[in-house]
Amino acid sequence: MSEKHTTPDGLVIVDKPSGFTSHDVVAKMRGIARTRRVGHAGTLDPMATGVLVLGVERATKLLGHLALTEKEYVGTVRLGQNTLTDDAEGEITSSTDASAVDRGALDTAVAKLTGDIMQVPSKVSAIKINGVRSYKRAREGEEFEIPARPVTVSSFAVHDVREAVADDGTPVLDLVVSVVCSSGTYIRALARDLGADLGVGGHLTALRRTRVGPYKLDTARTLDQLQQELTVMPVAEAAAAAFPRWDIDTRRARLLGNGVRLEMPDTYAGAGAVGVYAPDGRFLALVEEHQGKAKSLAVFG
């Protein structure tokens, strides 16, 4: 009799290859983990590489809450050219000599894009406008506007400025940058807006996501590595890394299991999602404080 395959619950931290959509990675993981129950927390553009957080089996219930966490990137911005997609995937729509841009003007423009800002996402993003994906409207040549949205750029640093010449002979500047930002921030929109402010145009030529919330590149595995050995972070450990922890006694654990809304300590007021653990370390639920009581967001134990 063949041994029944069981897929472990948990998160898989993937180092996404360039050229793959986030959905491609999910499809590949369904094959590796041998389950349909796989999802991802926050997309990564096909061109980009780096940390993509996947949930397998019951851990898919964590994904919506993880998607809201802070993200960190390193990338390259080319000043001197605009593209249709605000990144290297799209055709070039304008070229301007960027060699005269000095560091002072650059630093001023970067500072304007740091902090709490309003950002207009790229037209080829997955944002829905009246129920239709923005990129679909753009592909069909439709004229439309995307409203600006509030995002937070905690840090936007330029580490190196390299002079280069584009394929069409335009003198350009390639900036090596790092960005720490809130969920929903488009790095290619930062590149576009930086170029626009400096009057020379700009787009993103490379992007690598190095962190999603507490999950970093050093724990990520390539799809090839995962094919060899599926590395899953157990749900309890994954939740402990991402959310505040609330340990409860056996009596409360039983009440929670019966659907009773527990009184929550004041320390968790306004903390957002909180992980609840039984005395034996089992991860029971993800809750949030609502009028002093624990409102269940997702139940595990």
From TrEMBL:
GO MF annotation list: RNA binding; tRNA pseudouridine(55) synthase activity
Keyword annotations from UniProtKB, A to Z: Isomerase, tRNA processing
Taxonomic superkingdom: Bacteria
Name of the top EC class for this enzyme: isomerase
Catalytic residues in the record: 45 (nucleophile)
Domain (tRNA pseudouridine synthase II TruB subfamily 2 C-terminal) ranges: 243-300
tRNA pseudouridylate synthase B C-terminal domain span: 188-230
One GO BP annotation of this record: mRNA pseudouridine synthesis
Pseudouridine synthase II N-terminal domain sequence ranges: 31-187
Pfam families: TruB_C, TruB_C_2, TruB_N
EC number: 5.4.99.25
InterPro entries reported in the protein's UniProt record: PsdUridine_synth_cat_dom_sf, PsdUridine_synth_N, PUA-like_sf, PUA_sf, tRNA_psdUridine_synth_fam2_C, tRNA_psdUridine_synth_TruB, TruB_C
Enzymatic reactions: uridine(55) in tRNA = pseudouridine(55) in tRNA
Function: Responsible for synthesis of pseudouridine from uracil-55 in the psi GC loop of transfer RNAs.
Family: Belongs to the pseudouridine synthase TruB family. Type 1 subfamily.
Name of the protein described by the UniProt record: tRNA pseudouridine synthase B
Species whose genome carries this gene: Streptomyces tagetis
Gene designation: truB
